[in-house]
Amino acid sequence: GMLRLFSWLTKTLVPDKVRHKPLYVQMLKDMPPRLVRWQSGAATEWNPSGAPGVPVYQIHGGKDMVVPVKNVQPDTVIEKGGHLINVTHAERVNRFIQE
Question: How far apart are CA 81 and CA 94, in angstroms?
Answer without folding.
Answer: 14
